[in-house]
Amino acid sequence: MSERLVVIGGTAAGLSAASKAKRSYPDLAVTVFEKTGYTSYGSCGLPYFIGGIIQNPGDLVTLTPEALRTERGIETFIRHEALSIDRNAKTVTVKNLEDQTIRLVSYDYLVIATGAYPVMPSIPGIDSTGVFHLRSVEDGIAFKAKAGVSKEALIIGGGLIGLEVAEQLSLKGLSVTVLEAAPRILPHLADELAADVTAEMEKHGVAIRCSAQVTEVLRENGEAKGVRTGDGEIYRADCILVSVGVRPNSSLAADAGIETGFLDGIAVDRYMKTSDPSVWACGDCVEMRNLITGEPVYVPAGTTANKQGRIAGSNIAGENAEFKGVLGSQVTKLFGLTVASAGLTEDQARKAGFAPVSSMITKSDRASYYPGSRDAKLRLTFDENTGVLLAAQGAGSESIAGRINVLVAAITAGMTVMQLEELDLVYAPPVAPVYDPILIAASQGIKLVKPKQ
């Protein structure tokens, strides 16, 4: 009888694990259980479904349960929730959410890929009709329907997802206000770059209100009508998105006695194995390691989930793959501005024992005389004593994403700003200047390096 792999979670991490394990170990019987009604969907595309750029929610789905069965040999069940894990018996109790039936499923190997859950503030009225979060396709469908009949919208939270939704709603003609409790939006960015994003949003009609702690959702007959902030201000809207972060959905694992770690993320080793040798975990439900410091962090991302899933699947199949860690690499485009970042903030670097300094430059993203050239801002953070690169951030045209990707490779390789300045980067007037912004930023950074005597 074939060995059996059971995967709890049928999106990025879970299906990457299932697919890789099945490819490398064809005789393995693989079964996936997904709580929602969709598998293999791109949740990062939900803002653009809400905005109408993506017309059909099915377009966000890469592989349906039918395709997984016929094309990959993976038995996949949607609207099935894993209720508990018995590690001694090696069984999972699964509930069919359609007919409420319950069954026991045995496994030889188990992958937990339960993702994350949205943080919802404990404030009066948060359960009102018209208050939404955004994690699943179903969430996107419900929010889009409400936004389609609303004139005003409030976004609670000034992170990437909140700002992307704000952009899309504004393009649809809604009056949109973003309420951020912190002194500025996108707190992982340098002040100047966060200010550039704020200016871009406000230029296109999105109101940004920082230091605005929402203390209550105002409602009538159970329906949201606005919010009140700590300073007594009232903002009116009947369509409210709460986007203040997520936390690891690790309770299923914890209840089974599997160890958890940072922010209650499931503790895994570099092979994605948990404290139980028959159980792997991957994706937004696990704690991660920072690639620079080695310290535990929690930076959920679709790219990370896919990589971790592939590594878990490889190791279940008897291979020897390792997940090295994360840099928190991020990018988004808001109206005409692309902003990207990777690595440590200066505060994080100091806490890790570095002596961080930063250089910021503004340089044309291609030959300045070429039509369509735009200024690109690039900020490098590095250790003052060694010049080792610790972080990179930038804003400008879409080309900034490629430059940050180059710098991600440099950070991963442990390069210094001195080595960066020597890179043989491409040049052609339509696409890149003779002195790339990376080289200019590195050159400026070298002036700040002061090796210890």
TrEMBL record:
Protein family according to the UniProt entry: Belongs to the class-III pyridine nucleotide-disulfide oxidoreductase family.
Domain Pyridine nucleotide-disulphide oxidoreductase dimerisation: 333-432
Every FAD/NAD(P)-binding domain range: 4-289
Protein name from the UniProt record: FAD-dependent oxidoreductase
Entry's Gene Ontology molecular function annotations: oxidoreductase activity
Record InterPro entries: FAD-bd_OxRdtase, FAD/NAD-bd_sf, FAD/NAD-binding_dom, FAD/NAD-linked_Rdtase_dimer_sf, Pyr_nucl-diS_OxRdtase_dimer
Sections of the chain in a coiled coil: none
Cofactor: FAD
Organism of this sequence: Breznakiella homolactica
